[in-house]
């Protein structure tokens, strides 16, 4: 993905691909499934399922999945999941795999309880597989009446006061030679019908809060007529190999300006037909209001399975989405005025009182007005591989996520720069917290990424004591942090006004971890294409924070990107702050790398 600046807010990386499961496409006797192997949402299940898997089979599968993705060979698989280094993104992946393989849904909050082990999870899955019931869901392609924007959507709508159309996520893929255009169009229709967020439009009457609605899509008739501007095919089969990159690059740049969250569409699929013998291209552009990075793996997996099923002649294949995005928006709005949510008010009120303003090198009447994509610049830091290994080991020893330690070191650097005993940082989290209503979000596309204010207490103490305060604070975040946005946007006026009175932090942090090989690319879309996709944001796009820190651990190497505005900060200032962070993280690992474990839960800072 090529861009002049990060899409905002930056999102957590999608999950790692699972090898195709041979059981996914086999319809078990006694239950109705889609051709992708998932249970049909509208199929009746009047009683126990005689073909339900045995507990031992489920447990063996779970242990194999965990062993392939997150565990070390010497791990004790009988221990609770949270003691095995599993974070919340790993739990999302597990929930998806459980649904795909066994046809049942497990909520993320169920997976995250401290006592949940592979043995207990196997019992839970086997029990539910034996007692499946009809899911009460809207039919694919159905429209949905206006509902409130989610907190991140509404905040972004307010920040982007100009043209909001050019603010996207985009990826360009190679397609296998000889792709059938008609079958592909039908697969895209079923994909769009199965994911409500791909059909969103925003209604914004003057002087009223904007709302979102979902347009319907026809499931019969020609797919091109039903999809309209969502799907386009560009025939460049007459071009020579040497001329393809320029033509593809030019069209990709044009497509970045083709979306309209007000009138639609919010997604474009552009297939480049280069003839039957050469790999083609597929550009997918989705507006940020409708999509986050975790959604990529859901969309790509479903597109692969839909096309493959249609190609094999299985004409009733469709997606099995979880809670549709507008239903999640409605549930979040209702949650904001429940006693459970309002009980979090004191916590968030205390957090937002923490200092969060950084000094500027260049004055501006309105710093956020000049903090745009046009003025954005980046400083990158790369740490030695041995430091990444020490980071992971220290995090495990202190019952923390590696991102917790990187965030804590950022707090140390900021506290020294600002000469404050505590600082506030906006931390980006995946936001798929199923503590709100009866939600199942592992297979739902949409923009869930939420920005959570975090207080980093750097009062005097040993390095281990200060780290323990950070880890403990992150572990105690109420409801994973989604309550802050709900209360500040949809809470009662007194609560909402109090939380929104404090400005957002000038600094954000996102730990994206290792996103190498994260996309589930298989046969239909075998790889990411080499051509650039163009600028995913317009020059006037307003960045949500003055300084954005994005950390990754690709190839077992920790890297930190520091995004800032040249209209507000000099490069030397940001490089000095990055050096402070580097020194603070190195000193932290020197001090606590072999110390006693700090209290807290693993995975707390997982974005």
TrEMBL record:
Top-rank taxon, per record: Bacteria
Sequence ranges of Low complexity compositional bias: 8-18, 39-53
Start and end residues of each Carrier domain: 52-129
Keywords: Phosphopantetheine, Phosphoprotein
InterPro entries documented for this protein: ACP-like_sf, CAT-like_dom_sf, Condensation_dom, PP-bd_ACP, Ppantetheine_attach_site
Cofactor(s) recorded in Swiss-Prot or TrEMBL: pantetheine 4'-phosphate
Chain spans, region Disordered: 1-53, 131-162
Protein name: Condensation domain-containing protein
């Amino acid at each position: 993905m090529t861009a002049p600046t990060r899409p905002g807010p930056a999102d957590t990386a999608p999950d790692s691909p699972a090898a195709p499961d041979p059981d996914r496409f086999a319809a078990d006797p006694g239950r109705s499934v889609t051709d992708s192997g998932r249970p049909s949402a509208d199929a009746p299940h009047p009683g126990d399922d005689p073909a339900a898997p045995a507990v031992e089979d489920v447990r063996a599968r779970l242990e194999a999945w965990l062993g392939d993705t997150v565990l070390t060979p010497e791990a004790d698989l009988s221990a609770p999941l949270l003691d095995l280094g599993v974070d919340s993104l790993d739990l999302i992946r597990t929930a998806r795999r459980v649904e795909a393989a066994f046809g049942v849904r497990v909520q993320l909050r169920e997976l995250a309880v401290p006592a949940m082990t592979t043995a207990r999870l196997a019992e839970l899955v086997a029990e539910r597989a034996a007692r499946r019931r009809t899911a009460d869901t809207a039919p694919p392609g159905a429209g949905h009446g206006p509902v409130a924007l989610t907190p991140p959507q509404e905040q972004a709508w307010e920040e982007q006061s100009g043209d909001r159309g050019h603010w996207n996520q985009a990826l360009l893929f190679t397609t296998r030679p000889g792709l059938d255009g008609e079958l592909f169009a039908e697969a895209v229709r079923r994909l769009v019908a199965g994911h409500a967020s791909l059909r969103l439009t925003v209604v914004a009457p003057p002087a009223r809060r904007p709302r979102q609605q979902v347009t319907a899509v026809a499931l019969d008739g020609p797919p091109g007529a039903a999809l309209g501007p969502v799907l386009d095919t560009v025939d460049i089969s007459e071009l020579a190999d040497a001329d393809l990159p320029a033509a593809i690059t030019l069209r990709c740049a044009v497509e970045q300006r083709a979306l309209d969250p007000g009138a639609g569409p919010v997604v474009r699929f552009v297939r480049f037909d280069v003839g039957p013998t050469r790999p083609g291209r597929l550009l997918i552009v989705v507006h940020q209001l409708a999509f986050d990075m975790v959604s990529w793996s859901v969309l790509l997996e479903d597109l692969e399975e839909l096309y493959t099923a249609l190609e094999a002649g299985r004409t009733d294949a469709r997606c099995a989405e979880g809670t549709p995005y507008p239903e999640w928006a409605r549930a979040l709005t209702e949650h904001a005025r429940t006693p459970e949510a309002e009980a979090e008010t004191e916590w968030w009120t205390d957090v937002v009182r923490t200092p969060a303003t950084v000094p500027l090198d260049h004055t501006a009447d309105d710093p956020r007005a000049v903090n745009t994509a046009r003025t954005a610049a980046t400083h990158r830091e790369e740490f030695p591989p041995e430091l990444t290994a020490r980071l992971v080991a220290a995090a495990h020893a202190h019952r923390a996520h590696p991102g917790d330690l990187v965030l804590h070191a950022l707090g140390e650097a900021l506290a020294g720069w600002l000469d404050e005993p505590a600082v506030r940082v906006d931390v980006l989290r995946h936001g798929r917290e199923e503590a709100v209503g009866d939600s199942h979000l592992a297979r739902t596309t949409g923009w869930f990424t939420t920005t959570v204010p975090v207080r980093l207490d750097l009062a005097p103490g040993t390095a281990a004591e200060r780290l323990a305060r950070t880890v403990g604070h992150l572990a105690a975040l109420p409801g994973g942090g989604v309550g802050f946005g709900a209360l500040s946007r949809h809470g009662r006026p007194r609560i909402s006004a109090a939380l929104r009175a404090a400005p957002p932090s000038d600094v954000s942090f996102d730990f994206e971890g290792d996103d190498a090989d994260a996309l589930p690319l298989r046969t239909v879309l075998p790889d990411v294409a080499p051509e650039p996709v163009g600028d995913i944001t317009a020059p006037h796009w307003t960045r949500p924070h003055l300084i954005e820190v994005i950390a990754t651990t690709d190839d077992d190497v920790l890297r930190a990107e520091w995004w800032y505005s040249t209209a507000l900060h000099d490069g030397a200032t940001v490089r000095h702050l990055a050096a402070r962070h580097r020194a603070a993280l190195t000193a932290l690992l020197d001090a606590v790398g072999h110390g006693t474990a700090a209290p807290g839960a693993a995975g707390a800072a997982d974005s």
